[in-house]
UniProtKB/TrEMBL annotation:
Pfam families, sorted: GTP_CH_N, GTP_cyclohydro2
SUPFAM superfamilies named in the record: RibA-like
Family matches, as NCBIfam families: PRK07198.1
PANTHER family the UniProt entry points to: PTHR47259, URACIL-REGULATED PROTEIN 1
Residue span of region Disordered: 32-71
Organism: Rhodocollybia butyracea
Transmembrane regions listed in the UniProt entry: none
Domain named GTP cyclohydrolase II: residues: 334-495
InterPro entries (alphabetical): GTP_CH_N, GTP_cyclohydro_II, RibA-like_sf
Listed Gene3D superfamilies: GTP cyclohydrolase II
Native organism taxonomy: Eukaryota, Fungi, Dikarya, Basidiomycota, Agaricomycotina
Protein name per its UniProtKB record: Cyclohydrolase
Domain named GTP cyclohydrolase N-terminal: residues: 81-292
Residue stretches of biased makeup (Polar residues): 50-69
């Protein structure tokens, strides 16, 4: 865990103090808008509201009419006039200093996106926290279940495992040096690194509202497929990574569970870096984001001085098998899968694609790498080294390097980032048009105009955040994922495809189409002619 030096804290505090002076000088306009001197209210403001919306009925709370109380609520929640957007020249608005990619946290600065009174005037990010969930937060405030002044508390929420510590790949302020542009590498360390700024109540009465965009925790996972693999002898119980589940009432064989560490990551985009990654200008990126989100974020246009954007899109989760600190240790073997969400298969087991079997296979490969060799094998090798006259150090070294680490990165990019609604439309077209492999990618393109919107160029950021510097085993056939990772500077030593026995009955179409389009295969060749012959089942064929 990085410890921020006294000097850094003093620097942050002095920055805060000068900001406070700027705040005090602010005009009445912003003052009215933000109520900056009022202390946080202990209870949610406003009353719970009834669904009678506008009808003149009595409120069960205080006997007033519902329409009256709705208007009062609105006034009490939003007393100022609506401010549609801000401008850099606006009096009193001065974003908190932020130098993306700087090594020193005091220079880098925190990402501040909150609209709480203590923070609104120093916001240095456009958008809202928690991606698409920000809408639910708005709803909670409107419904009276969340106090709009509530400032989250982070006591005892710090990471329980040694995952993602500041390292070289976090730093770099331009071009190829900038390895991370779509998440905040300091996101999980916010409460510790900026603790003083968060707690210093002399700032706006509340302290700055700086929120973690990443959280790290530990868990046990339990999958039926892993029980089966243990029963078949393809995985072993080591008592450390794979554990026997304690028997519980009424269950004959409770199976196994697996120790994992995991991290949830919200997207944070540094716009100049994102534009650079895609080889477009920052102004084009901003304009496209503004126009094609229905003008949702005017500050993309009016605040060119604010470079960070919190997009309303899904984030990612990383599951780690074995010691998480091994991820950044080049002497340890790493097995990795980068997986894009497919709810139909991952959760509900749909047979039209290979997503779930590939995911489960990857989890097993990760576990096998984390466990290293079977204890019997290690013992046999220790014996062999001993017999051949090896020293005690040589014998003990046998065990070293036996354990590796595995990671599965799970991105919320459903339907190749086109969404599930589009995906089902594509499925209908495929099934009605004769589901042959030669039409596989074309079908998506016919519905959506493109076959894929995942933009894998941003995907390796999470690997750099974890400090990964090489991948021994990559469980993916995707050439797009491979190219993005290797181009970002992380070599991949071995790739492997999904074993044929794991391909569900209706998914050969997908696999053949992928191989023909450039996905990796260890052996199979597929020609354009072959593609016409690989067909999926029609709906009628499976409806008995
Ligand atoms: N739009 C669309 N999305 C699909 C279709 N079939 C699967 N998906 C989505 O594709 C994503 C998975 O990508 P795949 O193409 O199966 O595989 P990949 O991630 O490119 O490559 P691998 O790493 O080898 O699995 C998930 O988000 C699925 O929901 C389809 O026909 N149309
Ligand atoms: Zn799928």
């Amino acid at each position: 865990m990085p410890v921020v030096s006294e000097a850094v804290l003093t620097q942050i505090l002095s920055q805060l103090q000068s900001l406070q002076v700027a705040q005090q000088e602010m005009g009445a306009k912003l003052e009215a808008l933000t109520n900056s001197n009022s202390p946080p209210s202990p209870e949610p403001r406003g009353l719970p509201i009834s669904r009678t919306n506008g009808r003149q009925t009595k409120s069960p709370m205080n006997g007033s009419t519902i329409t009256d109380s709705l208007q009062e609520r609105e006034k009490s929640l939003y007393p100022g006039r609506v401010l549609l957007t801000t401008y850099p020249s606006q009096h009193g608005i001065l974003p908190f200093n932020l130098t993306w990619g700087a090594e020193d946290p005091a220079v880098r600065g925190p990402v501040i996106c909150s609209r709480l009174p203590s923070s609104i005037k120093v916001r240095n990010a456009i958008g809202a926290h928690s991606g698409s969930y920000s809408i639910y937060r708005a709803l909670s405030i409107a419904m009276g279940s969340l106090d709009p002044m509530y400032k989250p508390s982070y006591e005892m929420t710090e990471p329980p495992v040694d995952l993602a510590v500041p390292c070289k790949s976090w730093y770099g302020t331009e071009g190829k040096n900038m390895k991370i542009v779509s998440l905040d590498p300091w996101g999980h360390l916010v409460p510790s690194v900026w603790q003083k700024a968060i707690q210093d109540k002399s700032v706006g009465g509340l302290g700055l509202d700086i929120r973690p965009s990443i959280s790290v925790t530990k868990a046990h996972i339990k999958l039926k497929e892993l029980d089966d693999s243990v029963n078949r002898g393809e995985l072993f119980v080591d008592g450390k990574i794979v554990l026997n589940t304690a028997p519980f009432e009424g269950v004959l064989d409770p199976g196994v569970e697996v120790n994992v560490s995991k991290a949830a990551v919200d997207p944070i985009w540094y716009l100049p870096g994102v534009a650079d990654r895609f080889g477009i200008s920052e102004s084009l990126l901003r304009r496209a984001l503004f126009e094609d989100t229905g003008g949702m974020y005017p500050e993309l246009i009016t605040r060119p001085d604010i470079k960070v954007f919190l997009p309303p899109i899904g984030g990612l989760t990383v599951y780690i098998f074995g010691n998480p600190s091994f991820l950044r240790d080049p002497s340890k073997i790493l097995t990795l899968r980068v997986h894009d969400e497919c709810n139909g298969s991952d959760v509900f087991g749909s047979d039209i694609c290979t997503c779930k079997p590939y995911l489960v296979y990857a989890i097993e490969e990760c576990i096998r790498t984390a466990q290293g060799r079977h204890p019997d094998q290690i013992q046999a090798e220790r014996e062999r080294v001993k017999q051949s006259g090896g020293s005690e150090v040589d014998v003990n070294n046998v065990e070293k390097g036996a354990e590796g680490v595995g990671a599965v990165v799970y991105f919320r990019k459903e339907g190749r980032a086109l969404g599930e609604v589009t995906k089902y439309l594509v499925y209908n077209l495929r099934k009605r048009g004769g589901d042959s492999a030669d039409r596989y990618f074309k079908s998506t393109e016919m519905v959506a105009g493109v076959k894929d919107m995942r933009f894998q160029a941003l995907m390796p950021d999470v690997l750099h955040w974890l400090g990964i510097n090489k991948i021994d085993n990559m469980v993916s056939m995707s050439d797009m994922k491979y190219d993005a990772i290797v181009e970002s500077g992380i070599p991949i030593l071995k790739r492997y495809d999904i074993p044929p026995h794991l391909i569900p009955p209706d998914s050969q179409v997908e696999i053949d189409a992928k191989i023909a389009s450039g996905y990796f295969s260890s052996g199979k060749q597929v020609t354009q002619e072959d593609l016409k012959k690989t067909v999926g089942r029609r709906w009628e064929e499976v409806e008995h």
